[in-house]
C-alpha cells in the first residue's frame, strides 16, 4: 500500500493555491513543507487537488508547481498525482501534455456534473453524453472527459476514472431536465449506503449509463449503482485507463452492494 497526502480540495481547500503557485518564494516554502511532512511520516508522495486553475496563467503556474514538486520528489521513489475536473471548460486552462510529464496519475473527477448550482436536474456522473443534451452541463460525461484528456496528450494509463460514492438530490423533481426545490439530505447529498431511498426502486438510464431513484421527500436522486460501476469498469478496460478511484470510501455499502468491491472485481475479471 502507498500512502499519499492530498493537498487542497473543494472550496477553501484550494483558495490559496493561486497566490502560492504564482510566487516563487511561496512555492519553495510549499515544497519544503511537503518535504518535511514526507520525511516525518514516511509518505510515498503527494496528490495536488487544486480545484481548479481558472485561467491560462493559473494553469501555467499549476504546471510549474508540479515541476518543482517532481524535482524534489523524483520518480519512482515518490508518486505525484493530481485531481482535475472532467469538463473541458476547466481542463482547457491547463497544458495537459506538459503537466502529465510530471505526474504518475490523474484522478479525473468524473462526477458533480449536476447539482444545486444548476437550475434544472441532471445526472451527476453519467457515463455517456446524451444524444440531445438539455443544457451545457448535460454535455459532460465520463466519456467526454476521458476523450478530451486523451486528445490533449495524456497517456491512457495515467488516467483514473472517478466514482461518486454519494447521490445528489433534487426535491420536487422526478427526472432530468426539471426544476426542483432546494436539495435534500445531509449537506445536499446522501451517502451511497443510504441509497436507494427507503421504499423506492433503483432505476437506470441505459442510454447514458446512470442510476437514480425517486423519493417523495428527496425527489430525484442521482447516484452510481453496482450496475453503473460495472459499466464504468468495462469502459476503463476498453479505453486502457489506469483504473478507478472513489470519493469517498467511507460512504460505501458492504457486501454485494459495495461499489469499491464491484469495481475491483469487474476489473480483475475482465
Tell me what the structure shows.
The chain is α/β, with parallel strands linked by helices and about 270 residues long. It has one domain: Glycosidases (TIM Barrel, Alpha-Beta Barrel), CATH 3.20.20. The chain contains eight helices and eleven strands. A hairpin with a 3-residue loop joins strand 9 and strand 10. Helix 2 crosses helix 3 and helix 7 runs parallel beside helix 8. The longest helix has 18 residues.
Summarize the structure.
The protein is of the alpha/beta class.
What keywords describe this structure?
alpha/beta; globular; 30% helix; 8 helices; 5-stranded antiparallel beta sheet
Fold topology:
Elements: E1 4-9, H1 17-21, H2 24-41, E2 45-50, H3 56-72, E3 79-85, H4 88-91, H5 96-99, E4 105-109, H6 142-151, E5 159-164, E6 166-170, E7 189-191, E8 203-205, E9 210-215, E10 219-223, H7 226-238, E11 243-247, H8 259-269
Parallel strand pairs: 1-2, 2-3, 3-4, 4-5, 5-11
Antiparallel strand pairs: 6-7, 6-10, 8-9, 9-10
Helix pairs in contact: 2-3, 7-8
H/E series, N to C? EHHEHEHHEHEEEEEEHEH
The order of strands across the largest sheet is: 1-2-3-4-5-11
Helix content: 25-40%
Mean pLDDT: 96
Contiguous low-pLDDT stretches (5 residues minimum) are none
Instruction: Classify the fold: give the CATH topology.
Output: TIM Barrel
Through-space gap between termini: 23 Å
Number of domains: 1
Amino acid at each position: 500500500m502507498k500512502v499519499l497526502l492530498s493537498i487542497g480540495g473543494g472550496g477553501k481547500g484550494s483558495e490559496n493555491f493561486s497566490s502560492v503557485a504564482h510566487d516563487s518564494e511561496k512555492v519553495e516554502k510549499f515544497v519544503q513543507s511537503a518535504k518535511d511532512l514526507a520525511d516525518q511520516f514516511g509518505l510515498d508522495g503527494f496528490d495536488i487537488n487544486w480545484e481548479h486553475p481558472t485561467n491560462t496563467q493559473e494553469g501555467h503556474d499549476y504546471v510549474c508547481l508540479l515541476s518543482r514538486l517532481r524535482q524534489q520528489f523524483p520518480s519512482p521513489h515518490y508518486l505525484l498525482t493530481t485531481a482535475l475536473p472532467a469538463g473541458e471548460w476547466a481542463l482547457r486552462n491547463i497544458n495537459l501534455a506538459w503537466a502529465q510529464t510530471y505526474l504518475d496519475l490523474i484522478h479525473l473527477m468524473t462526477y458533480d456534473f449536476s447539482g444545486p448550482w444548476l437550475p434544472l436536474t441532471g445526472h451527476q456522473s453519467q457515463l455517456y453524453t446524451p444524444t440531445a443534451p438539455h443544457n451545457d452541463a448535460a454535455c459532460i460525461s465520463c466519456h467526454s472527459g476521458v476523450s478530451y484528456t486523451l486528445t490533449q496528450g495524456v497517456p491512457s494509463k495515467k488516467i483514473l476514472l472517478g466514482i461518486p460514492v454519494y447521490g445528489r438530490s433534487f426535491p420536487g423533481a422526478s427526472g432530468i431536465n426539471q426544476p426542483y426545490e432546494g436539495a435534500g439530505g445531509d449537506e445536499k447529498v446522501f451517502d451511497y449506503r443510504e441509497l436507494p431511498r427507503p421504499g423506492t426502486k433503483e432505476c437506470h438510464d441505459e442510454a447514458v449509463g446512470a442510476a437514480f431513484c425517486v423519493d417523495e421527500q428527496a425527489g430525484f436522486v442521482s447516484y452510481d449503482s453496482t450496475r453503473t460501476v460495472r459499466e464504468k469498469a468495462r469502459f476503463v478496460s476498453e479505453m486502457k485507463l489506469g483504473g478507478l478511484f472513489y470519493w469517498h470510501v467511507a460512504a460505501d455499502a458492504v457486501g454485494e452492494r459495495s461499489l469499491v468491491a464491484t469495481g475491483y472485481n469487474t476489473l480483475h475479471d475482465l
